[in-house]
Amino acid sequence: MTGFEATLLGVVQGVFMFVPVSSTSHLVLVQHLLIGGGSTLPPPESPGMILFDLVVHVGTMVSVAIVFRRSLARLIRGAWNDLRGVGRRDRLSLRLIGLGAVSVLATGAVGFPAREAFSSAFAHPAVVAAALAVTGALLFASDRLRRGRRGLAQLTIWIAIAIGVAQGLALLPGFSRSGLTIVAALLMGVRRRWAGEYSFFLAIPTILGATALQGLDVLRSGEPVGIGLAPMAIGFVTAAAVGAFALWAVMRVLLAAKFRWFAYYVWALAAAVLLGGPVFDAFLA
To answer: Is 172 helix (H, G, I), strand (E, B) or coil?
Structure first.
């Protein structure tokens, strides 16, 4: 892997991890296009590329910590104070962490049993196109939802479960993790700001958990990685830097109720996947 390829893939991951248009689909697509153009990149399903994908995903986790550093610091301080008995009476910070854990468990309950079936969808362009079309419809409809009234203190275990289930369904190629989780929160009456922050905070334990599981699979395979530390580092830093900007921009669009901008792009991509051409071939590969 060259430095240019590592940078390009880091940019793709950084942008599409937070823009609600399915990051996994775009990352695999660009890898296929590079290989089709004569690159010597390992195939996307190889241990080396899987490990690289994990590294850039962790890079975007850093983006969340950068953009929401103040909120994250308040959450950590609040949880510490709650544990010492000097925080809010309702122990909001600890409660939010507990709700996040519930969401992660709900994601695992949906995603873990179906992960192989979801992964096989890459071989079925019609399924991917349908998922993209649904994602676009949800993004478009989200702009028309009434302003939610639920703040952080009004989040319930059922809302946490609903968001976790949405995140589990997003393992299906074509569905966007951020798109589905944010729309699920909005449908449950959560205010836009908190819907976005909860969704992106939820990405931290989700990425860590998925990275640990897939990392173990790579190690157990015993196959050579084939990608050096330098491209890994370039991809990580690029994904973190670009992801921070993309996350900031997506939050601005969310607060302005302009998610329909992304819906048009997703629908165009769905048509490209369904009708053929390079995108169709990439998803078939």
So the answer is: coil
CA quadruple 69, 73, 76, 79: dihedral positive or negative? negative
pTM score above 0.85:
no
- Positive or negative: CA dihedral 206, 212, 216, 218: positive
Domain boundaries, the chain: 3-284
* Cα–Cα distance, 255 to 257 (Å, whole number): 5
Alpha-carbon span 256 to 250, nearest angstrom: 10
Outline where 120-145 has alpha helix (H): 125-142
Asked if residue 167 lies in contact with residue 182, where contact means CB atoms within 8 angstroms, the answer is no
Per-residue pLDDT reduced to its tens digit, 5-38: 889 889 988 888 888 877 766 777 787 777 777 7
- How far apart are alpha carbons 163 and 151 in whole angstroms? 15
Whether 124 and 273 have beta carbons less than 8 Å apart is answered as no
Q: Write the CB contacts of 10 (distance below 8 Å, at least 6 apart in sequence).
A: 56, 59, 234, 235, 236, 237, 238, 239, 242
